[in-house]
Amino acid sequence: MNLQHALERMPQKGPMLLIEQVVSADASDIHCIACDHTSADYPLRLDGRLMPVSLVELGAQAAAAHASIIAIGDHHAGLLLALHRVEVTNPGALDSGERLHAHATQLHFDEGGARYSFTVTAGERAILTGQAMLKMEAVTP
Question: What DSSP letter does each residue of 21-54 carry, written as one string?
């Protein structure tokens, strides 16, 4: 499968699709490069500021892209049910201007939902880590 095709099937469209490229994906992991977060109109900015904790959306989108590639294989709708162990580890890394990367690892997947751990990095520095519980299902486009 073309990894970019997974992004076309994401429920997020337009500026709310925060992932620009899927670099790699295997049975348990995905690595994505985010859209440019330095833009003044980046959709997660609030009053011009990008708060590191808002990057949980980027981690959740990486997890959803992985589920689309590995488990669902189709257009899907999704819901972020819960976040666990979210930790902002290096908020200053956002100021570097380096592209953000999202890494997600599948911890569990069944018809009831999926659980992923995720890390958002700028270069080699982790900005945010956590776990997300998702409910996803295939839909007709």
Answer: EEEEE-SSEEEEEE--TTSTT-TT-BTTB--GGG
